[in-house]
Amino acid sequence: MVWAEAEAVRTAVRAYADAVFAISGHGPLFEGLYDDLDDDVDVEEFPADVMRLSVTGRWDYLVRDEAALRAFAVETMLSASPSRSDDDVSDHASDAGSSLESVLAEEIDRYPGLESAGAGWTVAPISRTLFEMTADERDRTGY
Q1: Which of 34, 59, 127, 128 could disulfide-pair with 132, CB 3.0 to 4.6 Å?
Q2: Torsions phi, psi of 76, nearest 5?
Q3: What CA–CA distances, in Å, run from 139 to 72, 79, 109, 123?
Q4: Does residue 99 contact residue 69 with C-beta atoms inside 8 Å?
Q5: Is the peptide bond preceding residue 82 cis, with omega within 30 degrees of 0?
Q6: What is the pLDDT of residues 88-112, one digit of tens each?
Q7: Residue 63 pLDDT > 90, yes or no?
Q8: CA distance to 10, 21, 70, 106, 119, per residue, from 77 (Å)
Q9: How far apart (Å, rounded) are the C-alpha atoms in residues 40 and 57?
């Protein structure tokens, strides 16, 4: 899982920095690493007469064949951007969650008449799907 791998890297970096400090007394080891980056966020402005739509929702899925989902995600990403490397595409389809995120991102960008003006969603494991909830439970979740 990508998140577990990222946490493993953070843990290793902290251990490395602690070891360097223990040996040399120098630290914080990575201070200033990102000082040259611009912290300002670019904000886009669109014409006032352009209709804006925002979609909020929840879709629950059962992953019956993770390998098929991952293969579909790779195929979808490569067909949308043939110049992408196999490694890059595989990195974005490393598990069921990242595969679904990648498919959603590629498919949404193909809708005619729409221009993406920002996107954000979370794909996460759940204990029960909407179909497994009572009406009251759904109401409490907002769906």
Answers
A1: 128
A2: -65, -45
A3: 33, 39, 31, 20
A4: yes
A5: no
A6: 888 888 889 888 888 888 777 778 8
A7: yes
A8: 28, 43, 11, 7, 17
A9: 30
